[in-house]
Amino acid sequence: MGLITRAAAVFEALMLAGLGGFMVWLAFSADYWLLLNPKFRWLTGLAGALLAAAGLAAMALAAKRRAGGARAALFAVLLAACLISQPVVLATPGVDAASVLDEPARSKPTQTSRVAWNGQEYIRINVAELFMLAQNAKADPTARRYVFRAQVVSDPEMDKGGVLLAGRLMVWCCLADAVVVAFLVDHGGPAPALGDWVEAYGRLTPAQATAHAGVEVKLKAGPMLAIERKYLFKAERLRPCPAPSVPYIFTVHQAEPYAY
C-alpha cells in the first residue's frame, strides 16, 4: 500500500477516534445538560468510547485497508463542527441565558416537600408535574394548594386582565423535543415583566369557572408550548424569585416529594 493511501487510512481512523473522544468529553462536560437530558450521559459516554475504540482499531489496521476519501472528509467536517460549536440556549420564552449557571447532576426532590404561608400549607411542585397532575389526577386536583417557580412567558398586554402565562422548559431527550409547559395564572396584582421568574402560591381552579377562560395568549417566537386549558392557577401569592441555576425541567415525579 502506498504512503499516501496509508496516510489517508490513518487520517480517517484519527477522525473517527476524535469523534469518539469528543463524545466522551461531552458526556463528562458541565455543558452536557444544555444539549441533552443528563440521564443519557452514560449512553453518550459509552457510544463515544466504542467509537474511539473503533478508530484506534482502524488505525492499527491502516496498513491493510483502503481509506474512503469521502468518508474521511465527512469525519473531519463532523469533528471540526463539534470542536468549534458552542452550546446554545433558547431565547425567551422559557429560558434566560443569564440564569444558566450550573450543571444538574440529576434533579432531586427538595428536602422540604411542603411550605407554609399565611396559615396554609403548600406542596412544592414543578410546572410539568402540576400539568400532569391536572391532566391525569384521579382525585380532585383543586383540593390542595401548590407552589411552583416559573418564568413569565406571556405578552405584557395580556396581563391587563390580571392573568399571565408562566412556564418552564421541559426536556425529555434534547432541545429538539423541548416544550414550554405553562399555566395561566390569575394573580390580580401588578404585572411582572416578560422573562421575570416568579414563585406562585395557590390552587387550581376549573377554567370554565373563571372570567379568564377565553383569554387570548400572545407569545413571542420560541419553542413549542403546552398550556393547561382545563385549569387555571389561582394565585394567592405571587412573588419574584431568583432564576433556578438550572432553568430546564428534566425530571417529573408522580407523587411527593416532587422535583420542584
SSE topology sketch:
Elements: H1 3-28, H2 41-60, H3 69-84, E1 114-117, E2 120-124, H4 127-136, E3 146-152, E4 163-170, E5 179-186, E6 197-206, E7 224-227, E8 231-240
Parallel strand pairs: 2-3, 5-7, 5-8
Antiparallel strand pairs: 1-2, 3-4, 3-6, 4-5, 6-8
Question: Overall 3D geometry?
Answer: elongated
Specify the oligomeric state.
Answer: single chain
Rounded Rg: 24 Å
Helicity range of the residues?
A: 25-40%
Can you tell me the residue ranges where pLDDT is under 50 for at least 5 consecutive residues?
A: 87-107
Distance between the termini: 62 Å
> Which range does the strand content fall in?
15-25%
Strand line-up across the major sheet: 3-4-5-8-6
Quick one: biggest sheet? 5 strands, mixed, barrel
Number of strands: 8
Structural class: alpha/beta
H/E order of the elements?
HHHEEHEEEEEE
Question: So how many helices?
Answer: 4
The pLDDT mean sits at 76
Structure at a glance:
With 260 residues, this protein is an alpha/beta fold.
What does this structure look like?
By secondary structure, this protein is of the alpha/beta class. It is built from 4 helices and 8 strands. It has helices spanning 3-28, 41-60, 69-84, 127-136, and strands at residues 114-117, 120-124, 146-152, 163-170, 179-186, 197-206, 224-227, 231-240. The chain has a 5-stranded mixed β-barrel with strand order 3-4-5-8-6. Helix 1 (3-28) packs parallel to helix 3. The termini are far apart.
Question: Descriptors for this entry?
Answer:
single chain; 5-stranded mixed beta barrel; 260 residues; elongated; alpha/beta; 28% helix; 8 strands
